[in-house]
Fold:
Amino acid sequence: MAHMKAKRVVHLLPNLNSGGCENQLLRVLPKVEGIEHIVVTLLDEGSLADRFRSAGVKVVNLNLANYWRIWRLGRLKGALNKYRPDLVISYLFVPDMIGRLIVKPFMGYVPIPFLRSTYEYPSLTFRGIRLAERLTKPLVSRYLANSASVKQAFVKGLGVDSKKITVIHNGIEAKKFKDVSVPDSLRHELGIKKDTQVITCVANLHPNKGHRYLVEAFASLAKDHPKASLLLVGDGIERQALERQVDDLGLVGRVLFLGRRTDVPAILALSDIFVLPTFFEGMSNAIMEAMASGLACLVTDIEPNHELIKSGENGLFFPVRNSKILARCLRELLEDKRLREKLGRVAQQTIQREYDIDVVAKQFGTFLEKYS
Structure:
């Protein structure tokens, strides 16, 4: 009996640097059976490219250098003609726009944008993005979204037909974060003693992630909790400003900048509390990983986070840009071990039940089979 040819899907991204979208794809694509996946990167390959290849996912880099070299997009047409995919999915704003304005009319494919953010941030850039989304929505016949809140933002805020948007949540390898041992070498590297209370934030150091409010909150309780430390995992354009803030507040040695790490599960296992002070999100991989690690999670009270966190059950909320209430919540968690353990236990159960990567990969595979 002859085997049917596997369906082929091209995933269009800027690059494969270590971000939430890219790590999510690295987790899920190898687990989607019966589909040949090809990731086409527009700019550079990115730091995760070799890991995709090791996982059996082909990576093709167009090396545009920057988006202004639009004449180089002929390379994209060449790649599509070579691989002749059954489906093209675009990720993040610029690839989404290229898909609608160039790929669809000039290359014969109709990409599906995979929405991963609400873009609800009061800046000129994000107002421009929302306007572009509104103007180009007639060019899109179907969307994916990584959360119900992202879907609702596009339906209510931008007028997209809800029937056009299919929600497929982010997923994580829950077992990867359960019962992780902390190597002594990590404690030694970070100077973390056994009795240190560790507060951790895993997020790129970008303005919209709200790190400065977390640092302010930590400063207000550092004196009363001399055994507490704050770990900031990630890097970005805000790093120098945050380092100056830490220096000005006298917190050098208490707030540690760890940069990008490959040992996040061990760092979370080392931690007592997870905080994400972000202004907006889609479906946060960082929160899910912290939940899977059994951590008490303290996150901003924004709609996307409500899909993961039920206040008082598996985590706590605090208002965006409110360091005073954040500090109050941190004090409560630092001083109440029983509450921390209860929130962390229920959070871990939530992830295992609803967001394990095998569950999500099956949903994604069903969608790809249906629409390719």
